[in-house]
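Record 1 of the preview.
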Amino acid sequence: MASTQIGKTEGMYNMLAYAIDQDPGPALLVMPREADARSVSYNRIKPMLESSDALRKHLPFLADDITKLEYHLDHMIVYFAGSNSPADLAQRPIRYLFLDEVDKFPKFSGREADPIKLATERTRTFWNRRIVKVSTPTTRQGYIFREYEKSDQRKFYVACPLCGGYQVLMFGQIKWPKEERSAERIKNEHMAWYECCHCDKRIEDYQKNKMLLNGKWVPYGAEINEDGNITDDYVGSKHRGFWINSLYSPWLTWSDIAAEFLRSKDYIELLMNFVNSWLAEVWEEKIEETTVDKIKALSCDYAQGVVPDDVIVLTAGVDVQKDHFYYVIRGWGYYEESWLIRADRVEYWEDIVDALFKTEYKRLSGNETLPVYMSCIDSGYRTDEVYRFCRQWSDRTKAVKGQEEITGGRFYRASKIDINSRTGSIIRSGLVLWNVNVTQYKDKINRLVASQDPRKWHIFKDPREEYLNQFSSEHKVLIRNRNTGKAKEVWQKKKEAVANHYLDAEVYAVAAADIIRALNIRKDETTKVHQEIMQQEHSRGNWLKKREGSWL
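->
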């Protein structure tokens, strides 16, 4: 994953040249379009072979053995193809596969599947295959970013020529006079410099080349000391991944990069290009974001497991994992105000039963207790177990499945899923699956968290760091189509974020409150309602039915 004009494609061609001369095997070079493949074959690869003494000897005797899409060399074949040509991708066994600018590949190759998958299948018969994927990044959904995240995520560390501290070159360390706003003056007069993140001293352009010559590729999780030695006590992926941006380019000065930023910063399409093509970063436009400090500031003076006096009803949300569960219990009062009562991780279904259905939570003042009235449990994982559990506790829990959007913009949609095996008809009294619009519920949570007067969202004192980190693990960004310019708002994990299980559990707890209409509680004639919930009437749910003069 690299910026443009940094040498990534040339490096790939050198790998092909090495295979031709040192370790031959059938090779395939794939470009976004067939026209690109023909151009590379004729203008880049053929001149490379002809101009090298080591490679020229492998050229065939007959000129007909060299075409724009096939090279029949003396002991191997090199194929060229466009990602939009399924026939060229799927018909030959390949040992070396080179994929260039994969983020520009179409999702489908003609009527066939993913072109990268089609080409990769061709390498299956070779135990010593090599697959090289190269691209400038686009968005977090782009192929190269997802592949880089699966790799050992190497970055190039260089030593400061003044203090010797190793660091990754980042745009935020490029400085120029604050009062200067002219991109042309900064570029022409070389006014920018790089500020070392260790000693804060200026690194000038003439010092860059020496830094690059002594740089080190360091995997994610490893450390590099002052002597340039890399620790080897980390656990990394077997896939090698490399990231590098334009700051490392020997053909660009600090002032060139600063000037390009100043030209781009006020125009969204130019700024996108700067982020992708110069900084080799994915493009994200943040709209909404929660932080750990913002969430911690919502802490109130009550302990976990205690119910504040203004709470009328409790709901819960459960996020199901492979061998454990994350759950939250939230209390609801008037006008969507809520308090976090409990947040925990447990290992067994019995623990969920105990926390949600067999425990009553004491009020802050007095001996009154409240049970959890309704809960929502994620059925996206261990689905059969969740369904079985929800059938057993059908009056107090609902099976839910999160969706990014629901037709009509609704918050949730319910559908019966139990089928009569004999007749094939839906069993009217069977299990109901609730599809919940996680995007809209996260929007609602973000609005409640941001409310100041009055504050709507509360958590107990001294929450665990795990809860805070997971709750603030996502932000809302704009995803723009590079061709049409249209933007879509999406909640997604931050690049450096941990898991988001507690956030998902909070979403399900809010969904449970919405399903039982607890978000509609108002102060008009609620005394009777409050008493009914406190007593937990035998006929559960009566307090929600429409009655003359009731708060609903």
